[in-house]
Amino acid sequence: MAKKRKYKKKKSYVNAPPTGMQVVFREFMKDKLALFSLLALIVVIVGVFIWAFFIIDQQQLMRISLRDKFGAPGEKFILGADQGGKDILGQIIVGAKNSLIIAISITLITGIFGIIVGLLCGYFGGWIDNLFMRIVDFFVTIPSLMLIIVFVTVVPKYSVGAFILIMSLFLWTGTARLIRSKALSESKRDYVLASKTLGTNDFVIIVREILPNLSSIIIVELTLNFAGNVGIETGLSYLGFGLPLSTPSLGTLVANANNPLVLQQYWWVWLPASIFILFMMLGINYVGQALRRAADSRQRLG
Amino acid sequence: MWKTIVRRFLIMIPQLFVLSVIIFVLAKFMPGDPFTGLITPQTDPARIAELQEKAGLHDPVHIQYLRWMGNAFQGDFGLSYTYKRDVAALIGERAMNTFWLSLLSVILLYAIAIPLGILAGRYQNSRLDKAIVLYSFITYAIPTFVLALVFLFLFGYQLEWFPTKGSVEIGYEPGTLRYFWNKFYHILLPAITYAILGTTGIIQYLRSEIIDAKAMDYVRTARSKGIPMRKVYSKHIFRNSLLPIAAFLGFTITGLLGGSIFIETIFGYPGMGQLFVSSISSRDYSVITALVMLFGFLALLGSLLSDIIMSIVDPRIRIE
């Protein structure tokens, strides 16, 4: 009996092509490492937010106590303490929270702007397309990392919000270019032409008809951008041009290693944060790759 | 061919112009001026005001911009405030250091990436291929500064295989063989770090190119003529797949410039990237503007180089 039911269930699959979520689900079931990365990421991100907002007392954490200077990992501090006797584990959690919030904001801002510009350029073409593609070309060739650093040092009343906007200013171009090329090929398809012949409003075609067809690519792009943004933010904070000093970040923790003495002898000050960044990047990228495979029927495993 | 190059050059001009305007505006927002470098406690404020007047710092902005560009074209970027030296000479010195580091990085990068890409493509889906794909995935995901720090900690401080700072030790006479060897020894670890980080693009491109080529008609023709697979690979497939790799060179240069900021800072290597970071920290604006302009120019040159190589390799994309 049981066997028969299973067969019947499978049969219903064959008739209708699998929907987006089913494809993604199958891909993750097939690739156990990707599934593990996804679950681990969710646990880590949710854990970091809960821990940082509800358990850690920030003022207590940032209090300097010279007696614990460079305290080794042990009972008092699970991961040791830094130059000011501050708990490393707590700083990693708060830093990770800040880094994640910034990376998510930048991803959303650049994503929304890039998608809008890409859709408009790809669908309408003409002078809008020419104008924006010249701007994109310009951003691709300039040394954006240096300009971000210069901007950060020039801006008066520097804050987290200013940092997010400066980063977004330089990072929207990749998404815009990708979405433009996809929207361009989509807008030549029969279903769009048919819709146009019926007299559908351009806005409706873009939002209701083209956008859903690009959704899988957008999800992949946003995931990979998210990983990239974590990397850039921590990198800039590491150099000292990221977050304002009052806001701890994973990068500023790693920056402790700029002191050769810390780098050599007090590895627990900088190594855990580095490893945390490394595994987070690996995890997000791995999930992104699995999503990319799910979005492209030729590469699917499941 | 020449048309393509000339056209690309003409596209570069407006891009450089816009970049220079942005940098000029940013420089105007920065405190200080070219004479800040001359100020000592003994300087009379009236004398500085006189110099500023003479240099035209009170002129309208567009005239100042034109003068600034004119001086930049003649290689005059003013004086460095921290080093009390001519900016062009200072950068020139550092540029040589960055050049040697970049050269070795590019050589190592291609030496690692090309064999790995070929092996992965040739033995597709084997264990070796899977290992190479995993390697290129990890190096893609890992941030530059994390790998550089771990390498410095591991190979520099723990194992003591490499020096941890500087470009050459004091006490070696310039020009001797030992001096060059010592310099090379200092560049090696940063160059290896960069090379490992930059391999992903080339490996993935080469791998998919070779996998695609396997199914091509010319490969089947060669096989049906009785040419052994080994020869088909070395004489037919590799030749076709390797050429476009040359075009990566331009992008590699652009990437190197961005990476040099991290790599040179971490390894304490006195190149342009490190100069940039230290100038930002000491608010040395004449050096900063000159460096951003130079990096922008080099990045544009890199993408130009890529396009030129591409149009030599693949005649289809030339502009008629």
Return the CATH class of the largest domain in chain B: Mainly Alpha
Cα-based radius of gyration of chain A, to the nearest Å: 24 Å
Which structural category do the helix and sheet elements of chain A fall into?
mainly alpha
Counting copies of identical and different chains, the oligomeric state is heterodimer
* Unreliable segments of 5+ consecutive residues of chain A: none
Look at the structure and give the mean pLDDT of chain B.
80
| Strand coverage percent of chain A | under 5%
Kindly state the percentage of residues in helix of chain B.
over 70%
Radius of gyration of chain B (CA) equals 24 Å
CATH topology assignment of the largest domain in chain B: MetI-like fold
Query: How many H/I helices of chain A?
Result: 14
CATH architecture annotation of the largest domain in chain B:
Orthogonal Bundle
Biggest beta sheet summary of chain B:
none
Number of strands of chain B: 0
InterPro entries (chain B): BPD_transp_1_N, MetI-like, MetI-like_sf
Domain ABC transmembrane type-1 (chain B): 95-306
Protein name (chain B): ABC transporter permease
Subcellular location (chain B): Cell membrane
Write the layout of secondary structure elements.
The complex is a heterodimer of chains A (302) and B (320).
Chain A lengths: L1 H14 L4 H11 L1 H24 L2 H4 L26 H37 L1 H16 L2 H11 L5 H12 L1 H14 L3 H8 L4 H38 L10 H5 L5 H6 L1 H29 L7
Helix pairs in contact in A: 2-14, 3-5, 3-14, 5-6, 5-8, 5-9, 5-11, 6-9, 7-8, 9-11, 11-14
Chain B lengths: L1 H28 L15 H11 L5 H13 L13 H36 L4 H15 L2 H15 L18 H38 L2 H8 L4 H14 L5 H19 L5 H10 L3 H29 L7
Helix pairs in contact in B: 1-12, 4-5, 4-7, 4-10, 5-7, 6-7, 6-10, 7-9, 7-10, 8-9, 10-11, 10-12, 11-12
